Amino acid sequence: MSQQQQIIRGAEPAAGPSPTEAAASILKRSKLRPTLAVVLGSGFQAVLSRCTIVLEVPYATIPGFPRLSVSGHDGKLLLCHLAKTPLVVLSGRAHYYEGHDMDAVTFATRVVAAMGVKVLVLTNAAGGINSSFKSGDFMAITDHINLMGMNPLRGWLAPDRFVDLSDTYDPDLTKLLKQAAEKAKTRFHKGVYLAVSGPSYETPAEIRAFGKLGADAVGMSTVPEAIVARQCGMRVAGLSCITNLAAGRSKQKLSHAEVLATGEAARPKSAKLLEYFAHLYAGGK
């Protein structure tokens, strides 16, 4: 087993299918070899209407993929072209709060790494902590704070488990996101994403504390995938849709329905933003 294979799977044999086996099961179905992977969080699925789909595979048919239980997450993998860029799209993700362990949460990340993908774009719905943020805005993640209470590399025996996260979110990819947002004519920010385990929303006191820690937005995903992607040697970009103001920032009670509704309203802009990003990425390779 090569060092890269060990990093993708771990030095000890894991129970069940490995990411390498899952990747092989996907690649044998198509000649398309993606260079870019995109994880679609809530509010980002509309970009699929702009893709030329070559292959669509339900997660349930891919060895080792976890089952999803969250509204707004389809649970399918697609090989396609977007703005002439060959990519793999993960429509929906597994969340820690669903009861999955971190190996399951990050399994798809290791699969796309095993497919040979070098760049991963992680999208999500997030609550706005920064007082200048409004619902429907977008934020490129420049750094993160992990308060999920768990690290996805815990217990792994792969050679490089002590991963340097100084530049987790690639500055050049962040620049492309900014340019894409300008082309899409949408409100755009850069900031720090704080991850909690969920599934309950945060209290106003917690949001005040998170703001003092330097967080601009809060959510329940993305950070485990980013850590594993960096371990696997992938470049990472992070993009949040601010679907609600965090607790205490408005008089309105928080609900998943609000997240989905705001994400639905932001779909046209999120689709344009990702399409422009793919176009800029293709031109900048």
Topology:
Elements: H1 3-9, H2 19-27, E1 36-40, E2 52-58, E3 76-82, E4 85-91, H3 102-105, H4 107-114, E5 119-128, E6 138-147, H5 171-184, E7 188-196, H6 204-213, E8 217-219, H7 223-231, E9 235-245, H8 256-265, H9 267-284
Parallel strand pairs: 1-4, 1-5, 5-9, 6-7, 7-8
Antiparallel strand pairs: 2-3, 3-4, 5-8, 6-9
Helix pairs in contact: 2-4, 5-9
The secondary-structure element order is: HHEEEEHHEEHEHEHEHH
Gyration radius, to the nearest Å? Answer: 18 Å
**CATH fold group:** Rossmann fold
Largest sheet data: 5 strands, mixed, barrel
Main sheet: which strands, in order across?
A: 5-8-7-6-9
> Which shape, going by the Cα principal axes?
globular
- Strand-residue proportion: 15-25%
Query: What is the typical, i.e. mean, pLDDT?
Result: 89
Helix content: 25-40%
Structure classification = alpha/beta
Tell me the total number of β-strands.
9
**Which CATH top level class fits?**
Alpha Beta
What does this entry show, briefly?
The chain is α/β, with parallel strands linked by helices and 285 residues long. It has helices at residues 3-9, 19-27, 102-105, 107-114, 171-184, 204-213, 223-231, 256-265, 267-284, and strands at residues 36-40, 52-58, 76-82, 85-91, 119-128, 138-147, 188-196, 217-219, 235-245. A five-stranded mixed beta barrel has the order 5-8-7-6-9.
Can you walk through the features of this model?
This protein is of the alpha/beta class and 285 residues long. It has one domain: Nucleoside phosphorylase domain (Rossmann fold, 3-Layer(aba) Sandwich). Helix content is 31%, strand content 24%. The protein contains nine helices and nine strands. Strands 5-8-7-6-9 form a five-stranded mixed beta barrel. The longest helix has 18 residues, at 267-284.
